[in-house]
Amino acid sequence: MGTVSFPGLGLELTMNPIAFRVFGWPVHWYGIIIAAGFLLAVVYCSRKASQFGIRQDDIIDMLFFAVPLSIIGARLYYIIFYLDLYRRPDGSLDFGAMVSIWDGGLAIYGGVIAAVITLLVFCKVRKVKFLAFADLGAYGMLIGQLVGRWGNFVNIEAYGGPTDLPWRMGIYEYVNGSLQYVEVHPTFLYESLWNLVGLVLLIVIAKKWRKFDGQIFLSYFAWYGVGRGFIEGLRTDSLYFFNTPIRVSQVFGFATAAVAIVALVYLLAFRKHDPDKLWVNQMKAHPRLVALVYPEGQGGKWLASQKKRLEQDFAKIEEYALPADVSAEDKAEMIAALKERSDLKEVLVKEEKKK
Known about the structure:
Elements: E1 2-6, E2 11-15, E3 18-22, E4 25-28, H1 29-48, H2 56-81, H3 95-98, H4 108-126, H5 130-154, E5 169-175, E6 178-184, H6 187-208, H7 215-232, H8 248-269, H9 279-285, E7 289-295, H10 300-312, E8 316-322, H11 328-340, E9 344-349
Parallel strand pairs: 7-8, 7-9
Antiparallel strand pairs: 1-2, 3-4, 5-6
Helix pairs in contact: 1-5, 2-4, 4-5, 5-6, 5-7, 6-7, 7-8
């Protein structure tokens, strides 16, 4: 339990990091908020997938690998630069504390690095253009980050140094061994709002000025890196390069922003871009062919949902309505023949309803 106030706004809140308990096990608000950010990101990216030529099925499959690996990456990044926090008095490492992510301690950049590596491998295996998928992923990262920062708020962490600004945040923290009231920068809020503005900007850029695959991905690093670099300078809980006053995320933020900005200027000002080379336009020009096989008169909702999904995935559809009197042998033979066709990428079959 803790108290957070915003004196300039006349607000005071009592924060309990535990939302509820299930059979005695605590469920933390931090985890709930992170999960909410993840779900919002998935829903939004699924809706925008066709804008970048990405199949919704590929999003789900990629997340199966990216989510756990990103959490591991975010945790490892944090532990590496805060290793002393996880040592017992005798100097040995406390592995139990290392896995307690519900207590906080996830570094965004560690998760981003792990996600990018995972996406690179996934796209190579699935033969999907990495930069197009990364453009879509930029939306997801900003949504996850802008929501996830509120988990830091509930945990009363990731705040800045003292300030007297009207939106200052009042908290209690230990100063020289004693609990004292201090008024600080709500840096969690700064970053959340910065990411919200960035998300809106990227949506507008993608809709009106997207010239090449990777443009939104680079724009994400340019925008987020600049904001994170400045905001990190206000925080009191930064990760530092080993025993130095250099803030890891500040350096990483400014460095990635600089590289992204230089790349964007060069690619937009000195390179010509053919719209036909955008992955989404390649997908439209060369749609995959999918066969839908169903009992005559029984397509119904199944047929409608499959058509909607496949059209969003830029697929061309062939329909085969099987007569009611077709034998099981003929049906099996027909499906086998369809699957042998080299031009068909997939054959989807709806089984006949039993009367």
